[in-house]
Amino acid sequence: MGLFVECLDKPNHPKHFLVIPLVITLIIGFVSMFTILKYYLTNRTGRNNNLLSGTCSSPPVVPGLPLIGNLLQLKDEITHHTFANWAEIYGPIYSIKAGASNIVVLNSTDVAKEAMVTKFSFISKRKQTNAMNKLKNNIIITRDSNEYHKMARRHVVTHMLGAGAQRRHRAHRDIMIDNVVNGLNAHAKENPMDQPVNFRRILQTEIFGLALKQALGVDSVGSSKYIEGLGETLSRDEIFKVLVLDPLSGGAEVDWRDFFPYLRWVPNKSFEMHIGRMEIRRLEVMKTLIEEQQKRISSGQEINCYLDRLMLAEGKTLAKTHLTMLIWETILVGSETIVDTAEFAMYELARNLKYQDHLYREIQKVCGNNKYTEEQFSGVTYLSAVFHETLRRHPPFPVSPLRYVHEDTQLGGYDIPAGTEIAINLYGCNMDKRQWDSPEEWKPDRFLDSKYDPNDLYKTMSFGGGKRVCPGALQGLSITCTAIARCIQDFKWSLKPGREEEDINTATLTSQKLNPLLVIVTPRDY
Ligand code: HEM
């Protein structure tokens, strides 16, 4: 979640206050005075005194500045790291202020589960940022829990992500994994042995192809495509950018008005134009891709994919814009989360040869000279340990999409009033020292402990929880684990010297390696 990150460096930075009219400056002056007064009164008479007297009913407050609250402390920092550091000082639940927004941050599995499961009915709404509204993100992940959300979630599970649907899409996954391994083999053959390969590039294009096939029936993008509404031919990379990369960075874009809703009426032209342009391009690309397939469906040619099934089930009742959004969401979320996880897993295995060898030996014991396949997953215990440890240490969504308290409730024993936003720091839960031994270390062996149920997909908080838990967990597991197993079975992995350090990019809605993994792959003989 890049919600706060770099907020003051963006074009829509409050420094643009310099150019807004005098009247706004005056309003800000009044608001500041009011906020300063309120801040001092609260600190003198409210929460801190309550804390000291032991009658506290509000979570501890991270001190910030009047008016802007904690925004400056979050600038230039990786938000989920800062949240986890504050948890060490203020405890697993505390509150911060981002401008006018009150946000309660949760950093332990217990309190996160309380919010996601036990108290769900009080916290079932999502917080919509201006960027999300502008991107018309009428998609499952950003919707409040209501009838539309229920209907959309049911369809994506039944037709794409549930166990039955996943079985039907098996052939696509097998082809995709073969293509990844072939890509690595081609690199190894055509280049000197110490020439590193950009693993993300190979994986990303293949997973994008898989997402298109599952959603639309075919990967019709090829190497380029003419987009009629734009009057342009876009390359595959450009289409990936329009459908996946731009919305991920755009959704994380900070509009300062999110933090100062009373100034919502002030125009922020650069932000609106930037997001608006992204939206037009995305809609035009989706229109071309969907209309092509609708022609196929009208000609009586059916394919077992999400679009065909959704058209059959809801085609007459679902507005075209909703249909487009639901199809697009699977391409968006399905493409990046898996790439991020698989890339971090291969990075950790490449720099921890002891764990890589362990995994390789176990794969060989189970598969011998045969290719690893999904059926062998339960036999290779260490693969599951590598997967869960990667998700624990590098959750693709380090902070789950913001939720909104719509009815007064309690969390972790504290009163939480309606109107509060809830940030669940999944990274913080996964790094909680009270739950995990040496949490900063990437150590798959921790999941070999018999206390873990081998079939439990939710050993960490990385898929979220409760009614909004990720419905793509099974697909995430099957693709990531098969990709890891085949990559380790066929190649020895090592890092390009000097690339051992961890680097993280959180300027998008997901957290990924800042620089693509450049890795030396040496084919194994087996
Ligand atoms: C390793 C891979 C993945 C991880 C770690 C992951 C993680 C998450 C997380 C943390 C959430 C938010 C949960 C919450 O709010 O509590 C989420 C929601 C969601 N994910 Fe995933 N995800 C992964 C893969 C996928 C895939 C492959 C798809 C589908 C193509 C998918 C589709 C969704 C959808 C539709 C939601 C919204 C659910 C709702 O709000 O009801 N995810 N995911």
TrEMBL record:
GO terms for cellular component: chloroplast outer membrane; endoplasmic reticulum. InterPro entries: Cyt_P450, Cyt_P450_CS, Cyt_P450_E_grp-I, Cyt_P450_sf, KO_chloroplastic. It is a single-pass membrane protein. GO terms for biological process: ent-kaurene oxidation to kaurenoic acid; gibberellin biosynthetic process; isoquinoline alkaloid biosynthetic process. One of its GO terms (molecular function) is iron ion binding. The lineage of its organism: Eukaryota, Viridiplantae, Streptophyta, Embryophyta, Tracheophyta. It comes from Papaver atlanticum. PROSITE patterns: CYTOCHROME_P450. The chain crosses the membrane at residues 18-41. This is Ent-kaurene oxidase. Its cofactor is heme.
